[in-house]
Amino acid sequence: MTHPPVTPALPADLAVPDYGRSTLADVLPGVATALGVPVHRGDLPVDPLGLTAALTGARRVAVLLVDGLGADLVRQHADIAPTLAALASPAGDLSAPCPSTTPVSLTTLGTGLPPGSHGVLGFVTAIPGAEGTLNHTQWADDPDPRVWQSQRTVFEQAADAGVAVTTVAPYLYRGSGLSDAAYRGSDYAGTVSAGDLAAGLLQAVAAGPRTLAYGYTPELDLTGHVRGVDSPAWRAQLSLVDRLVEQVVAGLPDDAALVVTADHGMLDVPGHTRLDLDEEPELLDGVRLLAGEPRARYVHAVPGAADDLVQRWREALGHRAWVVSRDEAFASGVFGPVDDALAERVGDVVALARGTWALIATRREPGPSRLAAYHGSLTGVELAIPLLLARGRALD
């Protein structure tokens, strides 16, 4: 008698995000609830982080997301980020979603839902029914953002409840598909610098008697990718982020609060833990589309090759990645419950890197393959993100 293969258990060094209890998806629902907004997020609780209590008395809240600011990185660099290190942590570390990458995280924050519900399921994903992929950071209006991501955002729900809602983020991202998917319902105030972000966030949070101002800064993540985590450039950028937060805290209205969080952590990837898929023909045989990113790969098979591809990738990668089929990945819960209509955006094979491994592709993806640091998988350093709080003087 033959038996079906046993699905590999999630390795001990990877973790399933605890959706509905302590993830990035839980931040805005809690903030909005504290502002008196009736938040709807299906079967998930509206405020599992206890932000209603932590924000008691606040009628105006600013939420700042620092791209790439992992919780471990804050703790390890308290000397160069004293403002961040001194902020309160009302709910401890949170978890990024899966994959731990910016488009997924920003949409998870904005909708208050796990990736399997909102449909932005990777950095690059297949477009079902088309022979192509969607890079969510280069997304304009095709596919239509309101169709691709059809869930109502927390920003929309807050605006409907009479809260003045503003996104303060770089001009470059205004009108993008990702901004529409993640932030729709908010007024978009474009920024040109860190100083502009600080001033714009303070202006937005003070603009009315009940406000929700959201700010986003990408430079720490970009510096880490290009120069490496804890490089002199990265440390200098973290110091600038700390100064930005210091300026916002100092300028908060007395009845306002600032919440600081992130979308993911990141880690350096040395040369000896890089596997170049373009140099591994046996791994690409039967592949129709290669999507995802170096630490969270989605592999779409030609018809009839999916089962064989799963086994070949699993055997070839061994300890370097957790390799499962699409259905096995869904059953593990890493994406939260997945809407059937969204399933084919994920590959027939899902490979999440372990340790410091990265599955690069030097010919297909020359730019991303040259980066110094990455994220995307489910290791602790990638998943752990901070939740930090500063309260205005009248709230202390």
Key features?
20% strand; Gyrase A, domain 2; single chain; 17 helices; 32% helix; six-stranded mixed sheet; 396 residues; four-stranded antiparallel sheet; disordered N terminus; Alkaline Phosphatase, subunit A; alpha/beta; 2 domains; globular
Helix content: 25-40%
Count of strand segments: 18
Report the span from N to C terminus.
Answer: 69 Å
Number of domains: 2
Low-pLDDT regions: 1-5
Instruction: Give the strand content.
Output: 15-25%
Shape estimate: globular
CATH topology of the largest domain: Alkaline Phosphatase, subunit A
- Summarize model confidence as the mean pLDDT: 96
CATH architecture group name of the largest domain: 3-Layer(aba) Sandwich
Widest sheet: strand ordering: 6-5-7-1-8-18
What is the structural class?
Answer: alpha/beta
List the total number of helices: 17
Tell me, what is the CATH class of the largest domain?
Alpha Beta
Rg, Å, rounded: 21 Å
- What's the main sheet like? 6 strands, mixed
Structural account:
- It is built from 17 helices and 18 strands.
- The chain has 2 domains: 24-119 and 140-268 and 380-395, Alkaline Phosphatase, subunit A (3-Layer(aba) Sandwich), CATH 3.40.720.10; 271-374, Gyrase A, domain 2 (2-Layer Sandwich).
- Helix 5 runs parallel beside helix 9 (177-183), helix 10 runs parallel beside helix 12 (232-251) and helix 11 runs antiparallel to helix 12 (232-251).
- It is 32% helix and 20% strand.
